[in-house]
Amino acid sequence: DCGVMISPDSNFAVVANIGRPQGDSSTVSLIDMRAEPFRVVDTVSVGSTPEGLAISPDGRLVAVGLIDGSTKPAENPFKTQGGRLILLKVDGMKLSRISEVAIGSWVQGVVFARDSRRIYVQNATDKEIQIVHVDQDRLVDKGERIRIGTVGAALRASY
């Protein structure tokens, strides 16, 4: 997982702020890296336990993978069947939530493809990489999965 990412142009960073794992909503903050000193300029609520975080190579979008209760025991009132992938748009120094889609359990990594049109989501419990498409700033799950046969712990990309 990654709790902080810096944009390709180094103008901003995003950081996941994980709240208590008791159903609390967590946030993602936008940090202005050009300011002296650096400072948080916007924060948005995203849901429970953001474990995967990625900025698109074009710097326009932020993908946030939420565990969202998917690792809780069955008797826990906050238990869910899977997590969620949230898509945020970066507009200047503002974040806005624009799309979301269901993902598998216990997300541990999120990366964009080089073209910013696909997002690879590592679902550890499901032992798979889920491919989510970005179509006109909307997340679309076409059911594409890459079986990895083991529980993954991190996922990174180099552009």
Question: Could you describe the 3D structure shown?
Answer:
With 159 residues, this protein is mainly β. It is built from no helices and 12 strands. The chain has strands spanning 4-6, 12-17, 26-32, 39-47, 50-55, 61-66, 84-91, 94-102, 107-112, 118-123, 128-135, 138-147. The chain has a 4-stranded antiparallel sheet with strand order 1-2-3-4, with no helix packed on it. A 4-stranded antiparallel sheet has the order 5-6-7-8, with no helix packed on it. A hairpin with an 8-residue loop joins strand 2 and strand 3 (26-32). The two termini are 18 Å apart. The relative contact order is 0.17.
Distance between the termini: 18 Å
Strand order of the largest sheet: 1-2-3-4
Q: Radius of gyration, Cα only, in angstroms? A: 15 Å
User: Into which percentage range does the β-strand content fall?
Assistant: over 45%
Largest sheet data = 4 strands, antiparallel
Structural class assignment: mainly beta
What general form does the structure show? globular
Average pLDDT level: 90
Tally the beta strands.
12
One letter per element, helices H and strands E, the order comes to EEEEEEEEEEEE
Number of helices: 0
Instruction: Please bin the fraction of helical residues.
Output: under 10%
Which stretches of 5+ consecutive residues score pLDDT under 50?
none
